[in-house]
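Retro notes
What went well: the complex prediction finally ran end to end.
Inputs used:
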Amino acid sequence: MGLTKSQINRLGEKLRHQPTIDAAGLNELQALRSLYDAPMAQVQTLLKERLGLDATSRLKTVNTILEKLSREKMRLAEMQDIAGLRIVENMGLGPQSHMVERIAGLFPGARIVDRRERPNRGYRAVHVVPEVDGYLIEIQVRTTLQDLWAQSMERLADEAGREVRYGAIPVGWAVAIESFLSLSDSLRQFEEYIESIRIERSQLPPPRDVSYGQRELQLYRARLDARLKSLESGVSELSDEIRDSLRELVEKKPKT
Amino acid sequence: MSHYLLIYRRSTGDLQEIHDLGSDRKAALSYRFEREQQQSADPDVEVVLLTAASREALNRTHARYFKDRRELATDVAAVLPH
């Protein structure tokens, strides 16, 4: 049997004001999450059968629901990631956008949250949020680099305290956190460079056309080649910078 | 699809247990809830149930549970061109 939004929100208000969860609260939270399980499984199956995409699914943990309720004023029924799926692919920004469009096409009316344009404390990804049988399901679509950054930040948050993901800076962690945010920006630039190269390459006229001696095409190709070379050189420099940052980051320990 | 139950201690980044629970969705969720009841007094411990096509797929989408920061940094470097 389902719960009304008012019933879900009442449970949220009760949990929000408890420092720890009691047995009754846990039972209710488990009953609530059970309701999301079938719609989440339905989305996972659709992604596989219709688009051939392998997504991993999960129902949010007790701790992270309680932390979110205590951190934010949102109502429990509005929490869009109680059930979530994640797709990680080694792809560029263009193919990522294309994948998002295909996924959104399966769920008319789904909300798309593009955190590449507006990163949230360095977090970059695209989320597609359909409502399935009355329940919001969050589908995270990440490139490998976006995902590795997010996973690293999660590990840092495990060590330093989960609240670092939402702006808190525990004593001794300021430098490491700033470096992580800076790394996110470098990775964003890197992905944008790569996407520019992909677009430039797609505009190159086929070599066969150029060899026919069409002067204008030859000049056009030369200009594109030069732009491409400049972009590739930018990628190379940025890659070196990112490697240096990574070396520093793994060595970094909190100063107490 | 297989269901994997993970017991993870956040402060140490220690994956204490991982169980492949097979494909029975209802049984997996029920076991997860049972383990949550046992762990509810310790907010440092996460009881996570992940559903994936394979263990390899799980490693790709939820590396945080399996790799430390150094290993993740190595993975980032491996994606960059030389």
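What we learned: Chain B has three helices and three strands.
What to try next: split runs per interface for comparison.
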